[in-house]
Write a structure and sequence with these properties.
The structure is a single chain. By secondary structure, this protein is mostly helical. It is built from eleven helices and no strands. The radius of gyration is 19 Å and the shape is globular. It starts with 5 loop residues before the first helix and ends with a helix. The mean pLDDT is 87.
């Protein structure tokens, strides 16, 4: 097929299979809890109507990404992974190797994502490369993947693939890493803070859904993905922290509640 090796096709097809399966399971789960009043107490903000036109645009964009971008990008980069010695058929390594390689990949991904994401908010780049993703001011899980092809490549795929490439991760562990990374980003865009989620258990070092929800609702700071280290180190979570303080003061009757969202026009002016 187009002169591609069987190994490259296998690599691309299995990465897309894991990606698609994670997308479907997470999307169905969060659509289900969206429909259940019992979960309303875990909403970050009150439920808001979703523009059907935007929803349809997102579905078409995501379907194209899954059918074209994800598998073909994986196929294109496979020679690099092969050069690094990736064994497509090796079993999972021992527990310690799995743990350090996953943690290493998390750190690499978070660092690259933070700086690329922050760069995409530069006024000269934002409206051309990143504004599409911010059309969802009120986030839903599947909107995590609503992005232009350029953004998808440089901001999502590149940071996710770099860690495994550098640490010579084998394919089976790469599947696990892909699942974890996608699960976190779908939950981060869900609009819910679920108390029993493993990501909430890591809240002291992990940003949590509330931070990324604030990033979408106010288009301000909180650029990190898996961890909050870079936002803390660079001071780009100051507005989120101020927002949380205002919320707490409002609950105690010491001030007005902060705005739950800002309009798209206000967001554009801030970039």
């Amino acid at each position: 097929m187009l002169g591609l090796s069987d190994d490259a096709l296998y690599f691309g097809a299995t990465i897309e299979a894991v990606h698609a399966a994670t997308f479907v399971v997470c999307t169905l789960f969060f659509l289900y809890i969206e429909s259940q009043p019992a979960f309303d107490k875990y909403r970050i903000r009150p439920k808001a109507p979703l523009d059907p036109k935007l929803r349809n645009q997102a579905i078409l964009n995501i379907a194209t990404s899954h059918l074209v971008a994800v598998p073909y990008l994986a196929i294109l980069v496979y020679p690099l992974f092969r050069w690094r010695g990736m064994d497509l058929h090796a079993a999972l390594p021992g527990p310690l190797t799995c743990i350090w390689q996953i943690i290493f990949s998390m750190m690499v991904e978070d660092t690259l994502f933070y700086w690329i994401h922050r760069l995409l908010h530069h006024p000269k780049l934002y409206k051309h490369l990143h504004k599409q993703h911010h059309k969802f001011i009120n986030t839903v899980s599947y909107a995590a993947e609503y992005a232009s092809p350029i953004e998808q490549t440089i901001s999502n795929v590149f940071p996710t693939y770099c860690g495994p490439f550098l640490c010579k991760m084998n394919l089976h562990l790469f599947w696990v890493w892909t699942f974890l990374r996608l699960w976190e980003t779908f939950e981060g865009h869900s609009g819910f803070v679920l108390p029993y989620s493993p990501w909430q258990a890591l809240l002291s070092v992990q940003g949590g859904a509330a931070r990324h929800d604030f990033h979408h609702s106010h288009n301000a700071g909180s650029f990190g993905s898996l961890f909050k280290f870079w936002d803390w180190a660079m001071g780009t979570d100051a507005q989120f922290k101020a927002f949380v303080r205002e919320q707490e003061a409002s609950k105690q009757g010491k001030g007005a509640a902060p705005a739950a969202t800002v309009t798209e026009e206000e967001q554009d002016k801030s970039q």
